[in-house]
Write a structure and sequence with these properties.
With 133 residues, the chain is mainly alpha-helical. The protein has two domains: 79 residues, Multidrug-efflux Transporter Regulator, Chain: A, Domain 2 (Orthogonal Bundle), CATH 1.10.1660; 53 residues. The chain has six helices and four strands.
């Protein structure tokens, strides 16, 4: 199938599909005319890519993970032994990023409320509940 059909079937625009190819996530065949030709399996591959992107993985991580992911009952499942450890590392990285964002939010709330920033950071794990302000 050509790129327009893959785009229509996956809901991913052609520009992104070309980007996925640049990143090594898709490997379409090329006709002598230069047109890309995608396999039927690329529809599922694009779905996996989108799921992994939504999970917060970068395209470079997805490139290493993608060969080790299969669909099991409509859900992605790891198929390579090392992949579970790599995904656990990514989960930790995302968790650390979330903690940093929560600290930023608390500092911003302190500024909004005219509170000392040090107090906002020190109350990191003891945030007041709704209505306690």
């Amino acid at each position: 199938m050509r790129i327009g059909e893959l785009s229509g079937r996956t809901g991913v625009n052609e520009r992104l599909l070309r980007y996925y190819e640049e990143q090594g996530l898709l490997r379409p065949d090329r006709l002598p005319s230069g047109y890309r030709v995608y396999a039927e399996s690329d529809v599922q591959t694009v779905g996996r890519i989108r799921s992994l992107l939504t999970a917060g993985l970068s395209t470079s991580v997805i490139a290493s993970v993608l060969p080790c992911v299969s669909e099991d009952g409509g859900f992605l499942a790891p198929t390579c032994p090392r992949m579970r450890a790599d995904l656990t590392d990514e989960s930790r990285r995302i968790g650390a990023a979330i903690e940093e964002l929560e600290t930023s939010r608390r500092l911003l709330e302190a500024i909004i409320n005219g509170e000392p920033p040090a107090r906002a950071v020190s109350t990191r794990n003891s945030r007041p509940g709704p209505g306690s302000r």
